[in-house]
Amino acid sequence: ITGSQRLPVVYLSFAECTGCTEGLLRSTYPWFDELLLETLSLEYNETVFAAAGEQAEKALHDAVTKYEGQFLCVVAGAIPTAGDGIYGMIAGKTMLEIARDICPKSMAVICIGTCASFGGVAAAAPNPTGAKGVEDALGEALPKPVVKIPGCPPNPINFVGTVVNYLLFGKLPELDAYKRPLFAYGKTIHDQCPRRSHFENGEFVEEWGSKEAEMGWCLYNMGCKGPETYNNCPTVKFNDGTSWPVQAGHPCIGCSEPDFWDTMSPFYKA
Ligand code: SF4
Ligand code: SF4
Ligand code: F3S
């Protein structure tokens, strides 16, 4: 790969809902098409690929062979591990086999979304398929740097920022203990929340549809998990800076934290 070449990306989809990919398709800074046409070379992605079946499989394996050690592997979705991975299959192979084959051949793995990062909804109790995040599922079979961009879905800007960091500085960004980039996950929602002054003043919403809810008071008593959740939603917002859950009147449900389906629920207190 030379400086003028676009960075090859292989984007694998495992046990997921496609929300992360759909979110990324709506990236506006830059627009997703600019990202694809000017910055990255997307070698494989099931959602936007024109190819299907054997043609798509060939494209995947050709890219991995051609760019071994030089491509970025992006993974969306958890990996079912129970029964040797039998609960998730693509093209006759288990997702576990595919991940074991392809991820170690990349130069780095970016887990997009909470499913790929920590298991997400697929791994919620009782987790009959033994779904795990990529790093947990592969263990020592993944001797490559891993970056996690959790969120359900994550903000595309956090993914783009990670890639741009690599392209500009030749290295992945600084990470926290869960391998989330500090530039995006360095502060809690609570510490950046515009409703924080209401929290400090003891001004809480106690009922949906109330006057307090209308006035934008703090949602802590309705179940808000902002104090325990690290993400940059209040500052970057979604949909080109339009809004984010708390601005829309909904408590944060902790979607960028490990095991949030189990540890942050019930999501509502009232
Ligand atoms: Fe879907 Fe959420 Fe999993 Fe992304 S993290 S694939 S949005 S369930
Ligand atoms: Fe904190 Fe949530 Fe209240 Fe915002 S709405 S101040 S994040 S508890
Ligand atoms: Fe998720 Fe909470 Fe942001 S639910 S989208 S981390 S406000």
Automatic annotation (TrEMBL):
Residues 185-268 form the Cytochrome-c3 hydrogenase C-terminal domain. Residues 17-165 form the NADH:ubiquinone oxidoreductase-like 20kDa subunit domain. GO terms for biological process: anaerobic respiration. The keyword Glycoprotein does not apply. GO terms for molecular function: 3 iron, 4 sulfur cluster binding; 4 iron, 4 sulfur cluster binding; electron transfer activity; ferredoxin hydrogenase activity; metal ion binding. Keywords: 3Fe-4S, 4Fe-4S, Iron, Iron-sulfur, Metal-binding, Oxidoreductase, Periplasm, Signal. GO terms for cellular component: [Ni-Fe] hydrogenase complex; ferredoxin hydrogenase complex; membrane; periplasmic space. [3Fe-4S] cluster binds at residues 233, 252, 255. Gene3D superfamilies: Cytochrome-c3 hydrogenase, C-terminal domain, NADH:ubiquinone oxidoreductase-like, 20kDa subunit. [4Fe-4S] cluster 1 binds at residues 17, 20, 115, 152. InterPro entries: Cytochrome-c3_hydrogenase_C, NADH_UbQ_OxRdtase-like_20kDa, NiFe-Hase_small_C_sf, NiFe_Hase_small_N_sf, NiFe_hydrogenase_ssu, TAT_signal, TAT_signal_bac_arc. It is found in: Periplasm. [4Fe-4S] cluster 2 binds at residues 190, 193, 218, 224. PANTHER family: HYDROGENASE-2 SMALL CHAIN, NIFE / NIFESE HYDROGENASE SMALL SUBUNIT FAMILY MEMBER. Heterodimer of a large and a small subunit. Belongs to the [NiFe]/[NiFeSe] hydrogenase small subunit family. This is Hydrogenase small subunit. The lineage of its organism: Bacteria, Pseudomonadati, Thermodesulfobacteriota, Syntrophobacteria, Syntrophobacterales.
